[in-house]
Amino acid sequence: MKARTRAAAILLTPFFVLFTAVMVVPIGYAVWLSLFTEKQSGLGFGGTETVFTGLDNYTAALGDRAFREGFGVLLGYCLLYIPLLLVGALGLALLLDSALARARRFFQLALFLPHAVPGIIAALIWVYLYTPQLSPVVQAMEAGGIGFDFFSPEGALPSVVNIALWEWLGYNMVIFYAALQAIDRSVLEAATVDGAGAWRIAFSIKVPLVKASLAMVGLFTVIGSLQLFTEPLILNKGTGSAVTSTWTPNMYAYTAAFDRNDYGLAAAASVLLALTAALLSFAVTRLTGRKGKRA
Amino acid sequence: MSKPRTANPWLSKAAVNGALVLAVVYMLFPLVWLLTAATKDAGGLLAGNAFSFDGFDLGGNLSRLAEYNDGIYFHWYANSLLYAGFGALACSLVSVAAGYAFHVYDFRGKEQLFGVVLLGVLVPTTALALPMYLLASEVGVVNTYWAVLIPVLVNPFGVYLSRVFCAGYIPDEALEAARIDGAGELRVFWSIGLRMVMPGFVTVFLFQFTAIWNNFFLPLVMLSDQKLYPLSLGLYAWNSNAHAEPDFYPLVVTGSLLAVVPLVVAFVSLQRHWKAGLTAGSVK
């Protein structure tokens, strides 16, 4: 038995050493940093010194309108993006799972393919497709009488949501489809024998049976959404878009650290963001009522 | 309660498949645009007509890509292959070793420890990039290969997946038989367990490779030397130049196309594996 315990320790050690180094320690370090501020020392000649300032960085971040507005943007983003993603992905999965769908392998692959495109490249492609001079889409929309400026203040949120949907719709569709395929077929046959139509089977039987997948995708999407950074960053750079450099809390932390060199403030912003993620994870897990399950 | 089914079955079939085709068009047209745009010179690109092959100059774009700044693009390409290839390989080994230990062995506090792994899945990693950067500068590895390689070796979800795969692929009898033959525990893992869970290993590798290949925030924070950039960061830098110098547009577009190719090939040829990964995740 001792040999087994030793083997378990040896096999687990690499992961937990790395886990500690790149997750636990940085979390602790971020909290530590957030309690200090760099100040000009003495006469201003001696460079800077680091002073313990307690929760000052937190009050500074929360007191900054740009930071609070970032959370407002995230809220709007989540309210628009998450329902569209869940309904779209589940809808496509139900279509693919219905007896009427053809070429299932092809559809699955084609819908999944955008996941192979790095987020930065997806954002670049879509920004080109949003640019009136370059874009066949904008030109086609204008020809059809729809003028929409993707870079306007009203266009900012839909522009980013569209890029995110493009990246994640197919990925999550495959997850839902896998869950649908795992449903015991005899349950569905019984419902058909009882006279239930395709719609009724989809909404009264299939959807309730994949609730766990919905909850999981919802949870991961919330956590991913809070970290929104790459796509708005590309929109921010040189497109004249209404997306500002502090549009999301993550962008705020990045500019605080690298444009303003205010690490304390950046750390406080990161900690607040991580806390929000923790609270939301807890809320989503509670709301969807899942017990702590294991493999 | 159910209404009599009066709908024409042919019509329903057309509606279902039509909706799926529409979704596929939405997914694929940006990629088709990328393909046609990569064949154009700067003038052709700015002139519109995106979905045509007017001003076809793919060869010119490729040679400019190879020549610009002493071929830095292919240097980035090699870096991306190194980060993603080595990183994913090491990460998969670390993850499968841990997942295997969670599946095979019983020890005190096992499920609590696994709970810590599951909590790790929920950590918003970009919030860690900044403190990681400051830590890395204290240790003196900022702006080196290690700064980008070490953080990507950890993937709690990979450990979770590995445990699920080990439960599915490794029958206890196989391990018992090896033990009776006198193999030590690590030997059993290396030559029996790892081999049997190989399809799961490939799945974890594929997802981690993709994650590293697509990683942008971490290299953005960690690296300042262009020679160390992965593709994502290099293309971002070029794109920032393009607003002032339109000659960069064809470089960015052609470079993006080539950067997408390896993953598209991987996903098309390894369909079984990414489906297995998403299935294992979905029945959690």
Automatic annotation (TrEMBL), chain A:
Transmembrane segments: 7-32, 74-95, 107-129, 160-180, 209-229, 263-284
GO biological process: transmembrane transport
Highest taxon listed in the record's lineage: Bacteria
InterPro entries assigned to the protein according to its UniProt record, in alphabetical order: MetI-like, MetI-like_sf, UgpAE/MalFG_permease
Compartments in which it is found: Cell membrane
Short name of one Pfam family: BPD_transp_1
Key word Kinase present: no
Chief localisation class: membrane
GO cellular component entries: plasma membrane
Domain ABC transmembrane type-1 residue range list: 75-284
Membrane topology: Multi-pass membrane protein
Protein name as it appears in the record: Sugar ABC transporter permease
Species of the source: Streptomyces gardneri
Automatic annotation (TrEMBL), chain B:
Transmembrane segments: 14-35, 81-101, 113-134, 146-171, 192-213, 248-270
Ranges where the ABC transmembrane type-1 domain occurs: 77-269
Cross-referenced CDD domains: TM_PBP2 (cd06261)
Cellular compartment(s): Cell membrane
Residues of the signal peptide: none
Tree of life domain: Bacteria
Membrane topology reported for the UniProt record: Multi-pass membrane protein
Any Gene Ontology CC annotation: plasma membrane
Pfam families named in the record: BPD_transp_1 (PF00528)
Gene Ontology biological process: transmembrane transport
Record key words, sorted: Cell membrane, Membrane, Transmembrane, Transmembrane helix, Transport
Family note: Belongs to the binding-protein-dependent transport system permease family.
Name this polypeptide is given: Sugar ABC transporter permease
Organism: Streptomyces gardneri
